[in-house]
Amino acid sequence: MDLFNASPSVPRDLLVWQHAIACLRAGIPVSLLLVVSSSGSSPGRQGFKMSVAPGSMVGSIGGGIMEHKFVELARHGLADGRREVLLREQVHRGEAPHNRSGMICSGQQTLLLLPLHEDHLPTLRFVADALQHHHPAWLRCTARGELQAAAGAPPRAPGLHRPADDAADAWQYVEMLGFRDQLTIVGGGHVGLALSQVVAHLDFRLTVLDDRSGLNTLQLNPYAHDKRTVDYGVLGQAIADGPHQYVVVMTFGYRTDGVALRQLLGRPFAYLGVMGSAAKITTMRRELRAEGYPEAQLARVHAPIGLPIHSRTPEEIAISVAAELIRVRNAPRG
């Protein structure tokens, strides 16, 4: 674990925008491919994107034959000097009557092909700067090839918006920039450091909290975007909740785990988990029931955390926990 050459992660989209900027500055034509909607088992999810130039490309819209076709489509358009904006649905079923992608994984996605030009450069630079420095911002694309970006929250909900009459030239796509999901690790010890390293590759904005001042594994953690010393007795004030908030409790002991968990129970997190042995978790649940915490609240806590892979070392535990976070994040929404 090289702690001295690591740094907090940036959203993976940053490389796409940087590539597009570099191409335009060099006078190289480039197009943006962007998944504006997706459903089912589509390999390309909403927000996946690529920048495609004649001799280079960065990013992905789902891979496979579908991606190959759209890369070639973008390159042919660049060679011909075309500037038209395309919005195309792709259905991943061999028996689909229309818009077959060539893949059979089920689901579907809608792809935007947007040729970029010098007029887009100010917006591209703004987007890259916001991603690089973790500033909250949003992006809007329109059927006329407009790109708009601004700081703060978007004027309407993210996603693809079509007018009631489904006019082909009036749709727009809105996207929040940066990390969608936030992970807070409560406990900055050895496992917290190992988990930080793993999730640095998983597109989470990462916060690490601990109640011990001067803790070396917290101070040396280069992967966290935010790391703070907090009193676990007021931990609830330091953590936001919501559908994109994930919280892992792994403090240095049973008592502090309990203090932290009591601050968080019943709040609407996407994920709340506690590290510990089965015996420890059984005791903790029994005590919380005796204190009157509702069974429904306790049932939503993932404990012991992690997939059962017989993990022992901090690094193995980190992988098992990260796998569980991925499973929860990618589970179908009912």
Overview of this structure, please?
- This protein has 334 residues and is of the alpha/beta class.
- The protein is elongated and about 70 Å long.
- It is built from 9 helices and 14 strands.
- 31% of the residues lie in helices and 25% in strands.
- Helix 4 crosses helix 9.
Q: How does the helix and strand content classify structurally?
A: alpha/beta
Q: How confident is the prediction overall: mean pLDDT? A: 91
Low-confidence stretches: none
Molecular shape: elongated
Strands ordered across the widest β-sheet? 3-2-1-5-4
Q: What is the succession of H and E elements?
A: HEEEHEEHEEEEEHEHEEHEHHH
For the biggest sheet, the summary is: 5 strands, antiparallel
Number of helices: 9
Gyration radius, to the nearest Å?
A: 23 Å
Number of DSSP strand runs: 14
**Beta-strand content:** 25-35%
Name the helicity range.
25-40%
| Separation of the first and last Cα atoms | 39 Å
